[in-house]
């Protein structure tokens, strides 16, 4: 819970900065978030030293790692673009998800299915991909908010606070590209693990369920298709930046569906928690 | 020591007089030399298109004010009578408040305009480099820089465009970010089109003019260094353009919905910023419904400008409060300076007593080694420092001039400071750690 409170504190600082745009408050907001990330890094590092692998197994561990990756991805964008306005949209997500983690239990050992080299690649790459998609979703939403103000000729708070549409579009497409590449690597890692699992975990009842009809795998493939089409249409067809922003949001809704309700209630192949 | 301001500005003088009295940057050192020759050797001259002002520190405000006026009239050959009518002279707190308001942009023609702070900094630097500036002027101008920055960051006074052209440029930046790779097409070559083209041209990669009047189009293209395209192929020019400014005198629509749809379709989703400055409108209003087109007409831009002006008015109240705080801080500093002679004399007196006692005790201290004697010297010095610290701070903290003067007089009488003879340079240096006249000194 203290970690969630730290992220909440960072959120408050970003809200304050969004309202006042005082440079000192902006720097304080970044410092608070950086502090939260450092504490989080230390916590995950301790788990990693204890377990021998990052604590990505189980829902709490996976979400906590996801939150950390999202925070790192956001901070890297903030540092490279000197743009803090997006922080007010990202940090509440961090605080809420980290609060969810505190209600669960972090893993205390490494399950047998995590022993293979491809599982860590599969889970790690997918978590980072989802963190990138979360960031793309937030940027996409801010793009649409600013687009709306510009289109309706009523420049308001987002006009004053957000970077240009062009910058938001570039940030969105960069986050989607990184996410899609990692998603591809993650899915390939999963497929390779599955190939070996047929021999190493032949008695595991979940292994036969790992087919294209499994809801979790189906939604992962759908996510890959949505973002892949977004990239392809943006590059080779005339997909407008606004539609790209919509697709980033839609894609992340599918990710959220896969990450939470489907993983909990419908997945037959990935119920590891 | 007093602060005097003598000047004219857009509030008091017409453009013709401001032009005559204005002093270019290269001439400023010569004017400062001339002022110094007249006995005003600690001054800063601020001369912009909207104001010419001299800030000077002096012991005789009236004489310095007269000297500055005389110098300006003679140097620029301006008739004294016409200058007097536009002139303002302010002293001490009023002069400081004026400079702080100027630096904050509160006294500008367009309230909140950002350039004035840089001009104030340049004026100070020029004076500092040319002849050096004293502690009073240094503290004053550093206060002005601080308040200028604070007002802009804390009140939002400089936010928002307050002219049609600047509003259009701000919108373009919000859509495209960096404009240096963007292309502008201008329909028309009238005054409105010309102003907007000039405003945009300095920020974009290229500007192309399309107009029915080829002679005027050519002339405008030459003036801004842009290109020209025939009126008949104007829609083709939009294929590579990012911004369209339309300000023709046509009575019917010159950019139709169907034509614009074709253009945007060929541009494969790239957005276009369309500015319709014409009355009656040049661009079909339905164009606004196309996803890639951001259409703004003259009323939309005017609405933004009006709103920004209203917001600036709200910010003015907060900015004035900040200026008042800065003036109070500056006055407190100035008052504290008034007691410096007393503090110097007091410290000198104590130091002499200390030295006398040490001299008297010298025969008794002969048994001590050099290290121990140095320690005794240090201990007595620290005791004197500590004894004087509180009364010095209390004296400087008095915010009423009369109370300060009476306390100062009491101290002088109680410790017979006026009977001590001249204060030694060493003592003076100990009591006033900063020399009064150093170029660019921080106070």
Which features does this protein show?
heterodimer; A: 273 residues; mainly alpha; globular; B: 443 residues; alpha/beta; Beta Polymerase, domain 2; Rossmann fold; six-stranded parallel beta sheet; four-stranded antiparallel beta sheet; elongated; disordered C terminus
What does this molecule look like?
The complex is a heterodimer of chains A (273) and B (443). Chain A has nine helices and no strands. Chain A folds into two domains: 1-110; 113-273, no CATH class. The longest helix of chain A is centred in the C-terminal third of the chain and has 36 residues, at 165-200. In chain A, helix 2 runs antiparallel to helix 3 (59-81), helix 7 (165-200) runs antiparallel to helix 8 (215-236) and helix 7 runs parallel beside helix 9. With 273 residues, chain A is mainly alpha-helical. Chain A is 78% helix and 0% strand. Chain A has helices at 2-20, 23-51, 59-81, 87-103, 117-151, 157-161, 165-200, 215-236, 241-266. Helices cover 57% and strands 12% of the residues of chain B. In chain B, the strands form two sheets. Chain B has a six-stranded parallel β-sheet. In chain B, strands 2-3-1-4 form a four-stranded antiparallel β-sheet, with helices on both faces. Chain B is of the alpha/beta class and 443 residues long. Chain B is built from 17 helices and ten strands. Chain B has helices at 15-21, 28-37, 61-76, 80-86, 92-104, 115-131, 135-155, 164-176, 191-201, 214-224, 234-237, 257-266, 298-338, 340-361, 370-397, 401-414, 425-431, and strands spanning 2-9, 43-47, 51-58, 88-91, 183-187, 206-210, 227-229, 243-246, 272-276, 293-297. Chain B folds into three domains: 2-158, Glutamyl-tRNA reductase, N-terminal domain (Beta Polymerase, domain 2); 164-300, NAD(P)-binding Rossmann-like Domain (Rossmann fold, 3-Layer(aba) Sandwich), CATH 3.40.50.720; 339-431, no CATH class. Chains A and B meet through helix 5 and helix 7 of A and helix 8 and helix 13 of B.
């Amino acid at each position: 819970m203290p970690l969630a409170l730290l992220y909440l504190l960072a959120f408050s600082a970003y809200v304050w900065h969004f309202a006042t745009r005082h440079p000192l408050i902006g720097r304080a907001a970044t410092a608070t978030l950086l502090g939260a990330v450092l504490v989080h890094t230390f916590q995950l590092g301790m788990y990693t030293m204890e377990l021998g692998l990052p604590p990505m197994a189980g829902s709490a561990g996976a979400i906590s790692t996801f939150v950390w990756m999202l925070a790192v991805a956001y901070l890297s964008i903030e540092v490279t673009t000197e743009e803090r306005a997006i922080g007010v949209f990202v940090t509440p997500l961090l605080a809420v998800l980290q609060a969810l983690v505190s209600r669960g239990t972090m893993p205390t050992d490494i399950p047998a299915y995590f022993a293979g080299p491809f599982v860590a690649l599969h889970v790690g790459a997918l978590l980072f991909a989802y963190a990138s998609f979360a960031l793309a979703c937030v940027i996409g939403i801010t793009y649409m908010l600013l687009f709306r103000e510009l289109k309706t000729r009523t420049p308001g708070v987002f006009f004053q606070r957000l970077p240009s549409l062009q910058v938001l579009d570039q940030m969105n497409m960069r986050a989607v590209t990184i996410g899609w590449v990692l998603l591809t690597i993650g899915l390939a890692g999963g497929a390779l693990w599955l190939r070996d699992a047929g021999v190493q975990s032949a008695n595991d009842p979940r292994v036969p369920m790992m087919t294209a009809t499994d809801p979790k795998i189906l939604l992962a493939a759908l996510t890959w298709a949505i973002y892949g089409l977004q990239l392809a249409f943006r590059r080779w067809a005339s997909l407008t930046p606004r539609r790209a922003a919509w697709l980033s949001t839609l894609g992340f809704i599918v990710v959220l569906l896969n990450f939470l309700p489907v993983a909990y209630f419908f997945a037959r192949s990935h119920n590891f928690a | 020591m007093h602060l005097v301001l003598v000047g004219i500005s857009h509030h008091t003088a017409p453009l013709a007089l401001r032009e005559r009295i204005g002093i270019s940057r290269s001439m400023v050192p010569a004017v400062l030399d001339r002022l110094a020759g007249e006995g005003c050797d600690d001054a800063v001259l601020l001369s912009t298109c909207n104001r010419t002002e001299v800030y000077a520190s002096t012991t005789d405000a009236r004489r310095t004010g007269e000297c500055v006026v005389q110098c300006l009239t003679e140097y620029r050959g301006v008739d004294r009578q016409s200058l007097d009518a536009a002139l303002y002279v302010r002293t001490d707190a009023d002069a400081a408040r004026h400079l702080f308001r100027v630096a904050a942009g509160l006294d500008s023609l367009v309230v909140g305009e950002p350039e004035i702070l840089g001009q104030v900094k340049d004026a100070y630097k020029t004076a500092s480099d040319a002849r050096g500036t004293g502690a009073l002027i240094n503290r004053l101008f550093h206060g002005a820089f601080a308040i200028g920055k604070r007002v802009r960051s804390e009140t939002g006074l400089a936010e928002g465009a307050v002219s049609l052209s600047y509003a259009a440029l701000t919108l373009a930046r919000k859509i495209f970010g960096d404009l240096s790779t963007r292309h502008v097409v201008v329909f028309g070559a009238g005054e409105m089109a010309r102003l907007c083209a000039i405003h945009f041209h300095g920020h974009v990669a290229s500007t192309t003019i399309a107009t029915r009047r080829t002679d005027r189009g050519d002339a405008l293209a030459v003036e801004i260094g842009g290109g020209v395209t025939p009126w008949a192929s104007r829609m083709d020019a939009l294929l590579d353009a990012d911004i369209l400014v339309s300000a023709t005198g046509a009575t019917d629509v010159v950019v139709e919905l169907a034509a614009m749809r074709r253009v945007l379709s060929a541009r494969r989703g790239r957005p276009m910023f369309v500015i319709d400055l014409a009355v009656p409108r040049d661009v079909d209003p339905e164009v606004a419904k196309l996803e890639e087109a951001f259409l703004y007409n003259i009323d939309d831009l005017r609405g933004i400008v009006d709103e920004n002006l209203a917001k600036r008015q709200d910010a003015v109240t907060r900015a004035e409060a900040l200026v008042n705080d800065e003036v109070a801080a500056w006055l407190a500093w100035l008052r504290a300076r008034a007691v410096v002679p007393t503090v110097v004399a007091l410290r000198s007196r104590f130091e002499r007593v200390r030295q006398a006692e040490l001299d008297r005790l010298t025969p008794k201290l002969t048994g001590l080694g050099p290290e121990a004697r140095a320690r005794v010297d240090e201990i007595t010095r620290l005791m004197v420092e500590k004894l004087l610290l509180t009364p010095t701070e209390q004296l400087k903290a008095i915010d009423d001039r009369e109370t300060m003067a009476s306390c100062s007089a009491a101290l002088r009488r109680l410790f017979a400071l006026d009977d001590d003879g001249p204060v030694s340079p060493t003592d003076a240096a100990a009591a006033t750690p900063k020399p009064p006249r150093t170029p660019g000194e921080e106070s």
